[in-house]
Amino acid sequence: MLAITDASFDDILAQGKPMVVDFWAPWCGPCRKVGPYIEQLAEKYEGQVTIGKVNIDENDDLAVRFRIQSIPTILFIKGGEVIERQVGLVPLSALEEKLQKLL
User: Fold this and answer.
1) CATH code at 56?
2) What is the number of structural domains in the chain?
């Protein structure tokens, strides 16, 4: 699982691959439940999509930049633009459906 930071985000984005970015915090119960889904997607789509996590406690600049107000929030990014945003806990199938739109 790729840990995305304030410092690394723009470099990762510049690689041009579609991205799925999970904004989370260690104290967030729903975040801990969605975490394994993100890991499964990262394994399944390795090489096709960059999938990573942003700890909002350690990377508040990104949280502000993307106006993260609730966690977990998962952004689906293509061509440098957020094309989809998922807030809250949802089934793996719902996340995968949104990820498919990136391909």
Assistant:
1) 3.40.30.10
2) 1
- Rounded Cα gap, residues 58 and 83, in angstroms: 25
Burial class of residue 68 (count of CB atoms within 10 Å of its CB; 0-12, 13-18, 19+): buried
Verdict on whether the full-model pTM lies above 0.90: yes
* Rg of the chain over all Cα atoms, to the nearest angstrom: 12
pLDDT of res. 99: 96
Tokens of 13: 């984005």
Q: How far apart are CA 51 and CA 57, in angstroms?
A: 19
Read off the tokens for 50. Answer: 């960059």
Active site residues: 28, 31
